[in-house]
Amino acid sequence: MSLAEFALIDRILARTTARADVVLGIGDDAALLQPRAGEQLVITTDTLNSGVHFPVETPAYDIGWKTLAVNLSDLAAMGARPAWCTLALSLPDADADWIEAFADGFFALADEHDIVLVGGDTTRGPLSLSVTALGQVAPGQALRRDRAQLGDDIWVSGTLGDAAGALRLWQQNRLKVAVATLLSDDETLRERLLRPIPRVTLGLRLRAYAHAAVDISDGLLSDLGHIAARSGVRAEVEADALPISSALREQLGREGARDCALRGGDDYELCFTVAPSQRDAIHALSASLGLPLTRIGRIVEGEGVHCADADATDGGYQHFSERR
Amino acid sequence: MSLAEFALIDRILARTTARADVVLGIGDDAALLQPRAGEQLVITTDTLNSGVHFPVETPAYDIGWKTLAVNLSDLAAMGARPAWCTLALSLPDADADWIEAFADGFFALADEHDIVLVGGDTTRGPLSLSVTALGQVAPGQALRRDRAQLGDDIWVSGTLGDAAGALRLWQQNRLKVAVATLLSDDETLRERLLRPIPRVTLGLRLRAYAHAAVDISDGLLSDLGHIAARSGVRAEVEADALPISSALREQLGREGARDCALRGGDDYELCFTVAPSQRDAIHALSASLGLPLTRIGRIVEGEGVHCADADATDGGYQHFSERR
């Protein structure tokens, strides 16, 4: 890319909104930020590579949205209020239309959550996008993976498996994804894969109730496994309790849908543990947010994730060890 | 890469040292940090792509070193004290020896500057490395590009053009760079290209003297152009005053060396402006750090960067407009 092309990209990406705590934004060697007094910083980095984390034909708007969404989801899982982010963007060439659409998706989500782009680096290379997102939280209030308590209920937000289902259909060429066309039949699952909703508000509200939380990026069994391993407990999940969308069940059937819900990644819902005494509060929170929150199991003594499933051969429990 | 391979990489990269202000490091959805009360955050992101920002045959240790160095250099140019960083690492495959050597280089420099790795993301893809580095500075003390004053002297640290010279020789196959072999003849230039020294301590000390500062990553004319443009001034440089190493002059001759010093990138020296009344202080600082600091010009009314060169045809001045 020429220097003029880099300059064009920088101009397009400079259309971020203002925050009073950005002392110096894009344009110097680094940005200067004034964090809120006494609060802790929450920082996360996630990368999306073309052909690995999204199909190569994914529309630019959706890539922009998802690039930020996966990072906001990590902030949500910590109960942090989003503040600032940087973007490392590797591009094979400078296509102004592509960059504009990418920026439209990125900033649509950024503006919604009042997170501003304060820096980054545009380089020539295979399409790859890394965001580092920062948020703030009062000391002691962050939602961690290592605080699940014996007897806690296990909850998840939204429905599970939709993104994985969409990807399967896409790979089977059964989901129509022409770049400029949204087809209403497939839209529900497609949107769940390409425009995940980071549960930022839920994460903020959960600071009052949850003992432990994680976002579901690698699949429920895998991510809940992180809570079990780091908290030194066993997580028991009722497969029949999993919230599964009618769209997923229609497309993949009961077994396929359940498999996606247990093992599929990319949902970016939150999984969290709460004392049983708070069930009414969580139901009220669900109603207040207009977001399903479903109790799917409980925390007991032991280790690993175990799933009660009528189809399993060993008395109804399947065991899943933590993935990594 | 398999999950076991990702786990291996994570283990190798988890060998970071501790800092009291890291409340929660690698292993949760995000890291938790406790910034120093009242200070501002300084944040920068830089990416290195294989074959673009370093030759594909660059040793892993040097890639690890340089990946962090280019980001520390940005913190140095702001006068910030380094604190934390994240690393987004895309790898085509998991080669444990490569990762170990990469980590050796990365952490050698990190430990030197007390900056700790608090998170990141390892993905499969073409070799690409993005670091986001954070530092801290007291309000009002950061070194910015937009504060150069009329009458200021222009200074640079170290020698200029060595990295660009090394790259030219490398491309001409005149620099011997066998992966495991350092050849003493070429070592000076090679080290300047592959293991740049971020001028962190210099940046911290310059907070007491400098009006404006920038690091030289894209070449003196280009980076000094940023100071001129953002400060609304003209920068006049004396080509004969440029600090050029004997190694560079021997390899490339007077003209080639000067061209590298003016236009070559990747030096990661600091360029800064200081009132003439502080010349003695800067000379003393140079002696105290054991680092050459050379006065190469001054800030005057006007715009752009102008270079007084005995070879130029228009009365001795060549004009260079800002690159971007």
Automatic annotation (TrEMBL), chains A, B:
Binding site for Mg(2+) 1: T45, D46, D121
InterPro entries referenced in this protein's UniProt entry, alphabetically: PurM-like_C_dom, PurM-like_C_sf, PurM-like_N, PurM-like_N_sf, ThiL-like
Keywords recorded for this protein, A-Z: ATP-binding, Kinase, Magnesium, Metal-binding, Nucleotide-binding, Thiamine biosynthesis, Transferase
Residues that, per the record, bind ATP: G120, D121, R145, S217
Residues reported in the UniProt entry to bind Mg(2+) 5: D218
Residues involved in Mg(2+) 2 binding: D46, D74
PurM-like N-terminal domain mapped to chain residues: 27-137
GO molecular function annotations of the record: ATP binding; magnesium ion binding; thiamine-phosphate kinase activity
Listed pathway(s): Cofactor biosynthesis; thiamine diphosphate biosynthesis; thiamine diphosphate from thiamine phosphate: step 1/1
Binding locations of Mg(2+) 4: D29, T44, D74
Binding residue positions for substrate: H53, D266, Y317
Domain PurM-like C-terminal positions: 186-305
Role summary: Catalyzes the ATP-dependent phosphorylation of thiamine-monophosphate (TMP) to form thiamine-pyrophosphate (TPP), the active form of vitamin B1.
Protein name stated in the entry: Thiamine-monophosphate kinase
Record organism: Stenotrophomonas rhizophila
Lineage: Bacteria, Pseudomonadati, Pseudomonadota, Gammaproteobacteria, Lysobacterales
Gene: thiL
